[in-house]
Specification:
The protein is α+β, with helices and mostly antiparallel strands. The chain is built from ten helices and eleven strands. Strands 4-5-9-8 form a four-stranded antiparallel sheet, with helices on one face. It has a three-stranded mixed sheet with strand order 3-6-7. The longest helix has 35 residues. The termini are far apart. Pfam families: Acyl-CoA_dh_1 (PF00441), Acyl-CoA_dh_M (PF02770), Acyl-CoA_dh_N (PF02771). One of its GO terms (molecular function) is glutaryl-CoA dehydrogenase activity. It comes from Paractinoplanes tereljensis.
């Protein structure tokens, strides 16, 4: 019997427009040509040519591609999601570079910044000439940003920032950092040039996950900023949380890419690896595993596409809708990666195959932009009308 690729099981491509398929194919080509040949070495060495990749992605219009103006492509949400999927099929760390640049740092400036800030930062960021990061998470305040320790106080016409941020993608290389701090008037955002005295970013080493990504710890030691550095439209914690919602949308799609790459690898292996005189894909237990994973992959895509269509028609998604997508797709992706590893047996842990790298990366994806537990509580609160975050 003729075999079909996992993605062709339900003919999912038929649900996309010609333009969406073109964008998807462009992202797939750049991932195949620029990322796949080297990513295993980047991961093993814990070093990635972030600036080179950003410049290439910028030339192709992939940075901040779902934003409008200031050199951004103004693409649809579905096209952006498909791009995230193809990039993460190569590696989650590479997709994180694009997500943090476009959906966190650029989006925060685009949504809440002044016209002067937008003109100063966004064109260079869209081109990949400037790198941005997003400083919200802190060493002692991950899932509870309302109690962040970073403070900003007024000193004449200036602001002075003190505190620290942790697990910040792109921070060691960033030209601008969007920093969130508590003030007497609530949570406030700032576009901070990283060459400002008192700002420092230390590369976090010894990661077992997202090794093909630059991650840093930011220290703010009496960082003095002019009033013009404040994001004027960002008022309260709702502003950074809306940025997280923006980024989570890309993760909903990206996780599918990692899962798909694992499943394609496992199917190929199962049809060529022989044990007991025949390919292991011919055994019922192996086929049951492959079938269950393929079903979850199709369901995850349909969920992501539905959310993308909603966003393109309505202009935005409700937070609980994004939480449904992030919770389901990342949770299922990591299950798929782990199951695919079992099909490859001992070879599943080898860097010659991408599965263990994807599985390790997805451990971080499961945690960042809201843990699974946080998304369960978001959904639970919407279902019951009761806030369970406080205990």
């Amino acid at each position: 019997m003729a075999a079909v690729a996992p993605w062709d099981l339900l003919d999912l491509d038929s649900l996309l427009t010609d333009e969406e398929r073109d964008v998807r194919d462009l992202a797939r080509r750049v991932a195949n040509d620029r990322v796949r040949p080297s990513v295993a070495d980047w991961y093993e060495n814990g070093s990635t040519p972030v600036r080179d990749l950003a410049a290439e992605f910028g030339k192709l219009g992939l940075l901040g591609m779902h934003l409008t103006g200031y050199g951004c492509a103004g693409s649809t949400a579905v096209a952006y999601g498909l791009t995230c999927m193809e990039l993460e099929a190569a590696d989650s760390g590479v997709r994180s570079l694009v997500s943090v640049q476009g959906s966190l740092a650029m989006y925060a400036i685009w949504k809440f910044g002044s016209e002067e800030q937008k003109q100063r930062w966004l064109p260079g960021m869209a081109a990949g000439e400037l790198i941005g990061c997003f400083g919200l998470t802190e060493p002692d305040h991950g899932s509870d940003p309302a109690n962040m320790s970073t403070r900003a106080r007024r000193d004449g016409d200036d602001w002075v920032l003190n505190g620290g941020k942790m697990w910040i993608t792109n921070a060691p290389l960033a030209d601008v950092a969007v920093i969130w701090a508590r003030t007497d008037e609530g949570v406030v955002g700032f576009a901070v040039p990283t060459d400002t005295p008192g700002f420092s970013a230390r590369e976090i080493k010894h990661k077992m996950s997202l090794r093909a990504s630059s991650t840093g710890e930011i220290t703010l030691d009496d960082v003095r900023l002019p009033a013009s550095a404040r994001l004027p439209e960002a008022r309260g914690l709702k502003a950074p949380l809306s940025c997280l919602t923006e980024a989570r949308f890309g993760i909903i799609w990206g996780a599918l890419g990692a899962a798909r790459d694992c499943l394609v690898t496992a199917v190929d292996y199962a049809t060529t690896r022989e044990q007991f005189g025949r390919p292991i894909g011919g055994f019922q237990l192996t086929q049951a595993k492959l079938a269950d994973m393929a079903v979850e992959l199709q369901k995850g895509f349909l969920l992501a596409l539905h959310l993308g269509r909603l966003r393109d028609s309505a202009g935005s998604l409700r937070p609980e809708q994004v939480s449904v997508g992030k919770l389901n797709n990342v949770r299922e992706a990591i299950k798929i990666a782990r199951q695919c590893r079992t099909i490859l047996g001992g070879n599943g842990i080898s860097g010659e195959y991408p599965i263990m790298r994807h599985a390790n990366n997805l451990e971080s994806v499961l945690t960042y932009e809201g843990t699974s537990e946080i998304h369960q509580l978001v959904i639970g609160q919407k279902l019951t009308g009761l806030n369970a975050f406080a205990g």
